[in-house]
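Recap quiz, item 2
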Amino acid sequence: MQGESTQDQWVDDHAGPVVRPYAVTRGRARPVGTFDLISLVTATRADVTPEAGLGPEHMAIIGLCQRMQSVAEVAAHLDLPVGTVRVLLGDLVERSLVQVREPRTTAGLPDDSVFEAVINGLRAL
Amino acid sequence: MDYGHSERPAGAAPLPTAIKILVAGGFGVGKTTMVGAVSETRPLRTEEVLTETGVGIDDLSGVEGKTTTTVAMDFGRITISDDLVLYLFGTPGQDRFWFVWDELALGAIGAVVLSDTRRLADCFPSIDYFEGRGTPFVVAVNCFEGARQYRLDEVQAALNLDPGVPVLLCDARQRESSKEVLITLMEHAMKTREARRGAAAATD
């Protein structure tokens, strides 16, 4: 149960530099999903017509993620803090404009093939 | 028959996998240099803005008006294949940003602890951190010009390392040398994982 004052406080204390004002006014406190730094983002469409609620940063993410990019790369290329990018990605996931693949943990890897592929890939560099 | 590890329909594109390696060590030891030496592009920089609650343990005297802190992380990318990407993250060098490491270290396949024999103590916190978390790591001694050369067993003893932890010399500016460090780390991480699986199976 969130009272009006609690929401105001969240915006004042935590959102200021992290969340862009237009995102905050849409009333969401957190992005959907966790968005690890190396979660991989891919745009689901080649081209998107600007629509209500999508800002230039959203469009920039879609353009950038025509090729698979990590959350960290999106933040670096857009020159925005990671926290801001997580909220923007949440918007895009809600609209199914991007797909986000969370990384697997080492324990979750089925076998050694990933390790072997990385070792061979590094040798071939 | 159940092909337990496959979660995708036959014929679908392979699932993209991203893996993360950390490059840690004291301030100025060459973390970003190493990231840049092996990455396919120049190192990128990403910033996390931390609010006051996150920096509560900081000594803010002199900057009392400051309510946020920006932590910058340099990172690079090595595309192994269409569906496998390796990311290298340089950890923030300042001790006071350790709490960011937890997010960075989460899911990391392993870590390189870069050290400088002229300031060996600078890498103690990184070693303690990865030992505590159980993250596989190697110690790479960055050979700075003019620094006295030590034998690897001397470094190993000085750092009081577990005998299984690989220690190697490197030149963080050189791609080949940095590649060798990463390959050694991957091999060590693979062995560590196998050993843990064996231990887990034995207790089942």
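The CA atoms of residues 53 and 112 of chain A lie 44 Å apart.
Residues 1-9, 11-16, 19-25 of chain A have pLDDT under 50 and may be disordered.
End of item.
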